Amino acid sequence: VTELLSVLLIRAPRGELNQNPMEDFPAGLIGDYELYPWEVLIVGPPDTLYEGGVLKAHLTFPKDYPSGLLK
């Protein structure tokens, strides 16, 4: 998989997330110029022990995404 294909595969969900953000699982780019590092927030669901909690994580896509995930 070429890096260009990787860029296209990452940009598609990014555009969808910008248009229709997920309330309980916001995600997006960390910076303005890098496409591969993302920040993800996982919000604790209501009526659970995790309600009101927020888990912040960084997700970095490999440059050869999606095949880099299979290594």
Structure description:
- It is a single chain.
- The protein has 71 residues and is of the alpha+beta class.
- The chain is 24% helix and 24% strand.
- It has a single domain, classed as Ubiquitin Conjugating Enzyme (Roll).
- The chain is built from 1 helix and 3 strands.
- It has a 3-stranded antiparallel β-sheet.
- Strand 1 (27-29) and strand 2 form a beta hairpin.
- The longest helix has 17 residues, at 3-19.
- The two termini are 13 Å apart.
* Element-level helix/strand string: HEEE
In DSSP terms (H or I, runs of 4 or more residues), the helix count works out at 1
> What CATH architecture would you give?
Roll
CATH class: Alpha Beta
Task: Give the number of DSSP strands.
Answer: 3
Q: Could you report the average pLDDT, rounded to the nearest whole number? A: 77
Shape: elongated
| Main sheet strand line-up | 1-2-3
The CATH homologous superfamily is termed: Ubiquitin Conjugating Enzyme
What is the CA-CA span between the terminal residues?
Answer: 13 Å
Number of domains: 1
Q: State the major sheet.
A: 3 strands, antiparallel
**CATH topology title:** Ubiquitin Conjugating Enzyme
Helix content bin: 10-25%
Give Rg in angstroms. Answer: 14 Å
Strand content: 15-25%
How would you classify the helix and strand content by structural class? alpha+beta
